Amino acid sequence: MAVNAKKIAVYVLVVFALYLIITDPAKAADYVQIGFEGISDAAKAIGDFMTWVANGGKS
Predict the structure, then answer these.
(1) Is residue 34 domain-resident?
(2) Does residue 3 belong to any structural domain of this protein?
(3) Closest by alpha carbon to 28, among 15, 19, 37, 39?
(4) Using an 8 Å Cβ cutoff, are 16 and 23 in contact?
(5) pLDDT tens sequence across 5-58
(6) What does the pLDDT read at residue 59?
C-alpha cells in the first residue's frame, strides 16, 4: 500500500511540474533558480562548517 502511495505522489508531482512548465515557463524557471540557490547556499554552509571543524572549532 505504501508503494502505491509513493507512486501516486511522484506521479502527481510530475504532472504538476509539467503543468507549471507548460502554463508559465518563466515562473517555472524562477522556481528552478530558487531551488539551485538554496542547494548552493546549503553546500556553502556545509563547507564553512567543515572548515571550522578542520580548524579545531576556532573562529
Answers:
(1) yes
(2) no
(3) 19
(4) no
(5) 889 999 999 999 899 889 999 988 998 899 999 999 999 999 999 999 999 887
(6) 66
- Domain count of the fold of the chain: 1
- Are 29 and 20 within 8 A, CB to CB? no
Domain range holding 59? 24-59
Q: How many CA atoms lie within 13 A of 18 on its CB side?
A: 6
With respect to residue 28, please indicate whether it lies within any of the assigned structural domains.
yes
Q: What is the pTM of this model?
A: 0.62
Domain membership of residue 15 (yes or no) is: no
Inter-residue contact 35 to 28 (CB < 8 Å): no
The span from the CA of 21 to the CA of 29, in Å, is: 8
